[in-house]
Amino acid sequence: MHYTALIGEPALIGNDEIHRDQLTALAKAAERPNVTIRVVPIRAMPRLGRVSAFMILDVAPAIVVHIEMARSGAFLDDEPFTTPYLRRAARLGEVALSATMSLRRIIALRDEMDV
Fold first, then answer.
1. Strand order in the sheet with 54-59
2. C-alpha dihedral over 81, 8, 17, 29, to 10 degrees?
3. Calpha distance 92→30 (Å, rounded)
4. Ordered DSSP codes for 8-68
5. What is the pLDDT along the chain (115 residues), one digit of tens a residue?
């Protein structure tokens, strides 16, 4: 099974020890052969609009989208409900940095911290 994460660059910005540790964990995860981490640059995000976190589970024969809400979550499996999320993920993939450039960005942000 392969895991791909598309992470908005604002989620990577911080300046505390916990944040640094999280960036280190992301960098280590990106080294795994079944994990791809891609950063969506801030400059690309306004054109796409903002949405809450969601996860696409592509397990044949179904595609399920899990969306996060303030106090709960929901699983969507009907095509009319999953299609907007599939389109959003595809669009984010088009504007995201490559896996190599994303890893470089994560490491640079971590190394620039004052902690």
1. 54-59, 62-68, 73-76
2. 80
3. 18
4. EGGGG---SHHHHHHHHHHHHHHTSTTEEEEEE-GGGHHHH-----EEEEEETTEEEEEEE
5. 899 999 999 999 998 999 999 999 999 999 999 999 999 998 887 666 667 789 999 988 999 999 998 899 999 999 999 999 999 999 999 999 999 999 999 999 999 998 7
